[in-house]
Write a structure and sequence with these properties.
The chain is mainly alpha-helical and 235 residues long. Helix content is 69%, strand content 4%. The radius of gyration is 19 Å and the shape is globular.
């Protein structure tokens, strides 16, 4: 008899965390929204223990805020938070790209091109959510090819928040999205030609534009809890 090794199965906590994380990152859960424990218990058909453990796990990732006697809420943002997040991202992405080009330039640039092809298709089909997720993939590619787990982990600290912010502002700003796609193609071309100086300058502009979009979305009410749900930010 041939005995096959049994692959480890994800725990209930991990299953719940993975699905709630995806819901936050794709905008199904809005920023500041209450994540109903009762609703999750009913949907997953599990006890409250893995639900609470999953919320604790996501709180460590900065995606969920657990407030005693109040519940669990998707993280919220502010102008100060947006400024700090984008500054951190700019610094980290430059280092990630340097490392990826040094370690595996060919595979990194090929991965970028494949993602750009899919971004073009998503834009043609006006699939805003798909475009947003591919935008995440484009910027994450450097950390997947950098060969440095510390850099990857550092990006992981904010990757979920960046994804959630993008997903919450995908629909209202078509003109910005067109400009964004042009910049992604230009950044890829600059890296292919070895013009790192031009890339760093364009990345800085690209992230500054992102800051502006986030500020606009925050002012327009796109980065908050669903209509009718009270703001949960603690003063």
């Amino acid at each position: 008899m041939t005995i096959k090794r049994i692959a480890p199965q994800p725990s209930l906590t991990q299953i719940v965390a993975d699905q709630v994380r995806e819901a936050i990152m794709t905008g199904s859960f809005r920023l500041g929204e209450n994540i109903s424990e009762d609703r999750l218990v009913a949907q997953f058909g599990v006890s409250r223990t893995p639900i609470r453990d999953a919320m604790a796990l996501l709180s460590k990732e900065g995606l969920v805020v657990v407030r005693p006697k109040k519940g669990s809420f998707v993280f919220e943002t502010s102008l100060s938070d947006i400024e700090q997040l984008c500054d951190y991202r700019q610094f980290l992405e430059i280092e990630g790209v340097h490392a990826a080009l040094r370690v595996s330039a060919e595979s990194y640039l090929s991965a970028m091109q494949a993602i750009l092809n899919r971004m073009d298709a998503a834009m043609r089909e006006a699939d805003h959510l798909a475009y947003s997720l591919l935008d995440n993939d484009f910027h994450r590619a450097a950390f997947e090819h950098c060969g440095n787990s510390y850099l990857s982990d550092a990006f992981g600290l904010v990757a979920g928040r960046i994804s959630a912010l993008r997903s919450n502002v995908t629909a209202p700003y078509d003109a910005r999205r067109t400009e964004s796609l042009e910049q992604h193609h230009a950044m890829h071309d600059m890296l292919k030609s070895g013009d790192m100086t031009a890339f760093v300058e364009l990345l800085a502009l690209h992230i500054q534009n992102t800051k502006d979009v986030y500020r606009e979305a925050l002012a327009d009410g796109h980065l908050g809890p669903p209509s009718g749900e009270p703001n949960t930010r603690e003063n």
